[in-house]
Amino acid sequence: MLHVSTRGEAPAIAFNEALLTGLARDGGLYVPETWPQFTREAIAALAGKSYAAAANEIVGALVDGDVPADALSAMVADAYATFRHPAVCPLTQVGDNLFVLELFHGPTLAFKDVAMQLLARLMDHVLKQRGARATIVGATSGDTGSAAIEAFAGLDQVDVFILFPHGRVSEVQRRQMTTVASPNVHAIALEGTFDDCQGILKGLFNNHRFRDELALSGVNSINWARIAAQVVYYFTAAVSLGAPHRPVSFTVPTGNFGDILAGYVAKRMGLPVGRLGIATNVNDILVRTLATGRYEPAGVAATTSPSMDIQVSSNFERLLFEAGGRDAAAVRRMMTGLVQSGAFTVEEPLLSAIRRDFFAGRADEAEVAAEIGITWREAGYLLDPHTAVGMVAARRALKEDAVTPMVVLSTAHPAKFPDAVQAASGVRPPLPTHLADLYERPERFDVVANDIAAVEAYVRARARAARGAAA
Ligand SMILES: Cc1ncc(COP(=O)(O)O)c(C=O)c1O
Ligand SMILES: N[C@@H](CCOP(=O)(O)O)C(=O)O
Predict the structure, then answer these.
(1) d(Cα 282, Cα 291) in Å, to the nearest integer?
(2) Could you tell me which Pfam families the record lists for this protein (predicted)?
(3) Where along the chain do its domains lie?
(4) Strand 134-139 to 158-165 pairing
(5) What is the DSSP letter of 315?
(6) 91-107+225-425 CATH
(7) Tens digits of residue pLDDT in 358-369
């Protein structure tokens, strides 16, 4: 199966190419040419299977033979053996028809591990097969960076550079990125916001000379393989709650729109998904867009859910492409509008198509803190602030439809944000034992100016040195 760019001006490529390519050369994002379909029978047959077995089927359908089934199966088994829970992504009930899908049992305590553990193995496999080397550059508001550094540290075929916004991630997140000693990882504190980090990242990819010189590869959710791996837990959660015999709704704490896009993809593949709730903190560009049709970034406010302090939501482009009937010219117009005038309008009938599948809800800081306290007191369940944003939006949605089960994606372990959780609940969540000495480990990172030329020079110098040493 080939993958096409949302902007329609880059060559269509197979899964393995999309895996190594990240951003398409026309600045767009890759999606499969068609969606593999899961019948009701195939969905029902997932019941009782292990997470790894479900992943083999679902990721296998998306990989479509580009990685041999036995190799994929070995990588999937290996990836999910790193999780601390036997169910990998377990469901917990916290109220009437209200469930939490725990995605934080991986090594770095955030949902990113679910995809990143598999992505690293897939990339390593394909690079080794080709005898090639890649320079991975990623932008993070805290969790993608930790997960990527953990997953790629020590691998021979890659050098990893992670840009994070200086002073705008939690201490646990920063330490997870800066205390890994492997020489192939480089944590870069950028003097700016996450949107600056992501803007520079896209700028590096759009500089084709630089991109080719260093064989740039991406691990952000611009990389299609990240989304593909995240589709799995929508299937496993929905099947646990009765799919395909009844629909299940999901509310997703949202920033870059990758996680919720995976839910939309699951629906396109045949899973009976009710509604998909986009939950944001006060950085609410997507809530405003669904309400008014106007996509207009504003300044970013720092919150207790820092991983969602994002205004420019990368994967929304994939939704605009898909929900708009794959009209690449329309996507190009909207994206040009964003660059040239700082905004664009989602016209009808695209806006209505999006509203049919999605609702959106925003939680301010007081609501997030109150939610952590309420869920702790009423259900004895400790939410992290990102999950709490989702819970606020989900509870509102349940008032409109109390019949369809609602699953809130729990995207991080509360111990990643202990100060905010303690302030809201009175409970300070401890780090799991494998991270118990995190605060004592020595840190290593460089501070770099918010300037693409400075980042380019930094990456080039270190990547060249590593390539020289490896040759
Ligand atoms: C803990 C947490 N929750 C939610 C999100 C938002 O997810 P997405 O960017 O896929 O919308 C992120 C960052 O991506 C995150 O790290
Ligand atoms: N919240 C993310 C931001 C990057 O998102 P990605 O899914 O595109 O990698 C983070 O924690 O880094």
Answers:
(1) 15
(2) PALP, THR4_C, Thr_synth_N
(3) 91-107+225-425
(4) parallel
(5) T
(6) 3.40.50.1100
(7) 999 999 999 999
